[in-house]
From TrEMBL:
GO molecular function (one): acetyl-CoA C-acyltransferase activity
Stored InterPro entries: Thiolase, Thiolase-like, Thiolase_C_2
Protein name, per record: Thiolase family protein
Domain Thiolase C-terminal span(s) in chain numbering: 255-376
Length: 380
């Protein structure tokens, strides 16, 4: 089995784009990725793509060209992009193909996500009782975590402050103006302790990657980050995830913990080897908890690290260097690949204004309901 490289990356800016469909934004991203790699759609041997609210991803085919290419639609909640990437990775790693595209895009209506409980195997009453409203779940989960590990509301505010500071430097981010800590902490409370600036919003956008075997990359005379590993894992008994109606006494590991462990083992690396990380920050508390679940610190150590500036650009481990979901918003199909796009820019030294100097190992982790986590580790 050979190595897999990312030789092209494209993104349609995230945010709100009146007059452009989600499909338009996915098409833009694929065309940008192909141009980045210098290859044509007719050269592509396979594609994996996903969208939650903008139709089937293979609806791109008539606009890209009806070449007969294998195109498989992927749907895995907010982890759709990470799952499409894993599928493309496997397709090349197996030796079956040499050149392919992974793509994700979406265009969500304004307002909160309105998930269908029956689509997740839950009774309809669960949603009618308001328990599908994820802002409440996330707030309750971080409240418990803060109580157990001494994390303060100021730390949650500092996560959001960093996100908007970084987003201001990323051309593809939605929120591109810094927001002060006091303004974040004193803004409208959505679900205690999370204020409106501590939540990401449903958004629009598209992201695409061109993947190649090492042999094909050399044949084309190209370079690109190597995928050291990719892993997707789901929840196990006792894990406490979105849509969990209760907390089990016998706790199990989270899907992020087991996906992270699998990806590090596959890559032959550890958390200390990572130079830049993009991790799921649906809200400020998610970034705090995922720092520990991905192995970057012990539970409770985040308070000290964040106040020391360790997760800022220039710190020990810069996290969410393009502003993450808080600044970019969350188009479900595209969000996980947006993280990988940011790492590709960092490892290529193209992240102007937010570059992590000397970055060689990039880590991404996207989380989706009802308990899915996808991790990818890249090497420059």
């Amino acid at each position: 089995m050979g190595d897999v490289h990312i030789i092209g990356a494209g993104i349609h800016p995230f945010g709100r784009h009146d007059g452009r469909t989600g499909l338009d934004q996915g098409l833009f991203a694929v065309q940008e990725a192909l141009a980045d790699a210098g290859v044509a759609w007719s050269d592509i041997q396979f594609a994996f793509g996903g969208s939650s609210a903008s139709g089937n991803a293979d609806a791109l085919l008539p606009r890209l060209g009806l070449t007969g290419v294998q195109f498989i639609n992927v749907a895995n909640g907010c982890a759709t992009g990470g799952s499409a990437l894993l599928s493309g990775y496997w397709a090349i790693k197996s030796g079956e193909f040499d050149l392919g595209v992974v793509v994700g895009f979406d265009k969500h209506p304004r307002g909160a996500f309105n998930a269908d409980p029956e689509a997740s195997g839950l009774p309809r009453w669960y949603g009618e009782a308001g328990m599908m409203l994820t802002t409440q779940f996330f707030a309750m989960k971080i409240q418990r975590y803060m109580s157990l590990y001494g994390v303060t509301a100021e730390t949650l505010g500092m996560v959001a402050e960093k996100a908007f500071e970084n987003g201001a430097k990323a051309p593809h981010a939605w929120r591109r103006e810094p927001v002060g800590l006091n303004h974040i902490l004193s803004s409208e409370m959505v679900s205690d302790p999370l204020t409106k600036f501590m939540f990401c919003s449903p958004a629009e956008g598209g992201t695409a990657m061109v993947l190649a075997s090492e042999r094909k990359m050399r044949e084309l005379g190209l370079k690109g980050p190597k995928m050291r590993s990719a892993a997707v894992r789901t929840r196990v008994a006792g894990s406490f995830e979105v849509f969990s109606p209760s907390l089990e006494i016998e706790r199990g590991p989270s899907p992020t913990e087991i996906a992270s462990k699998a990806a590090f083992e596959m890559a032959g690396l550890g958390p200390g080897d990572v130079d830049v990380a993009q991790i799921q920050d649906t809200e400020s508390g998610a970034e705090v908890m995922h720092m520990a679940e991905n192995g970057f610190c012990a539970h409770g150590e985040q308070e000290k690290l964040i106040h020391q500036g360790a997760t800022r650009i220039g710190g020990r481990l810069p996290v969410n260097t393009d502003g993450g979901c808080l600044a970019c918003g969350e188009p479900i199909g595209a969000s996980g690949l947006r993280q990988v796009y940011e790492n590709v820019q960092q490892l290529r030294g193209r992240a102007e204004g937010r570059q992590v100097e000397g970055a060689r190992i990039g880590y991404s982790q996207v989380y989706g309901a009802p308990g899915i986590s996808a991790v990818a580790i890249l090497e420059a």
